[in-house]
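Reply to dn_fold:

You asked what the input looked like. This is it:
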Amino acid sequence: METTRPEGWRTSAGYRLIAPLLRLISPEMARFIRFGLVGGSGVGINMLALYLLHDELGLPLSRSAIVAIALAITNNFIWNNFWTFGATGIQPRRLIQFVAVSLVGMVINLIVLNLLFAAGIHYAPANLAGIMVATAWNFYANSRWTWGAERAI
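and this is what came back:
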């Protein structure tokens, strides 16, 4: 199979500049970076849906947040499954585990969001804070439990 990289690409100046940086990134760190990029797309979906549902449609904040989080969970599962963790298909067990982990993350997000909102912080930064706290839980639990069994083999 042919590659799209030109012959000798590893000796190019650009590669020589970034190669030391690439060696510093462990496989787990690369996975976390991909997880973060996927999460970033989920944040965008979450924030847009929350704005549309709460501000534009006038739904209550918690209901809007639950729908927004559910949309982000769906996006994140698909991207994490195939890109972050390199699965070749969707296994029902993995989907159930991801949703279970994400539901715990949703509760964490909602607690932080509502506590900060009650303290007078606008819902958007309060939601972002909730997402950040939930992300730490989600990465740890998903990398160990949801996709961890395949890596341990």
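The chain is about 80% helix and 0% strand.
Hope that clears it up.
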